[in-house]
Design brief:
Largest sheet: none
Number of helices: 13
Helix content: over 70%
Low-confidence stretches: none
Number of domains: 1
Mean pLDDT: 85
Shape: globular
Strand content: under 5%
Number of strands: 0
Length: about 300
Amino acid sequence: MKINKTLFFAVKLVISAASLALVFSKTDISHVFEILRGIGPLPFFGAAALYILSQLVATTRWKLLLPEKFTVRRLFSLYMIGSFFSSFLPGIIGGDVVKAYYLNKDAKKLSLTLASIFMDRYMGYAGLILMGTAAFPFAMGLMTESIYKWVMPAIFVAFVIGSFLFFGLQLGRRFKVVAEFYEYFVSLKTRTDILFKTLMLSFAVQLISFLTVAMLSHAMGQKIPLVLLFVVLPIVNTLTTIPISISGVGVREGAFVVLLGLIGVKPAVATSLSLAWFFSTFIGSMPGLLAYIRHTNKPEIKS
């Protein structure tokens, strides 16, 4: 098992390295770093602050999806810990795994913990895909003719089919853990107020993300239409979520180059914007280290 994990990590490392090499082969690395230096520290830290704000909003969403009562402060610290592990130990320990571990210490029901984390991710992704799909008709006229401009509708169709297969057919229900998953989903389905609130919060989280990238592009002197970012970022996030690279490094940059190239953005600029977004997220996740240290040093309460 350990060998398989090491091999899988090595494969992802190779894919990230190869993807970055391909991206940098199409642009001047020195020009990329020159653009990044020109952004200045204020937009970087502003973007990092917006990332932390988005995590706080996402925490509020997660709280609504948990039947047991947890404070926002408690859940926010877990969210930041998960963000830290995802950013600093990519491909080794997943952020959601860490969140589930610490939350389960209190919830004492692993299926409930995992189901709430899954649903939190699902609602976040649903908000992202719906925003991207809604913006697509308005962004079509901005993009040159290319097969890549149809990726967003394809992702939407795949999302709908995947949702039907999972929730409609209830695959794997005969297994106890999966059955408990579906019991949670069935009980949640009747709470339309909760689903509506979580979807609205998901829209807010994604809007913050879109505005963050728009702010960074403005700091670079680029005027990328916001409606285009509404289409590009869902595609980028979908590709980087696929576990074939280290935190999406390389894949993210390649997607930015291809998709922003549809409106004439040069590869060096697209690569710089992608790296700036990644670095700001990296900085924004650092408070998770402090939260992790506090949780690690917190004494166990024996019953």
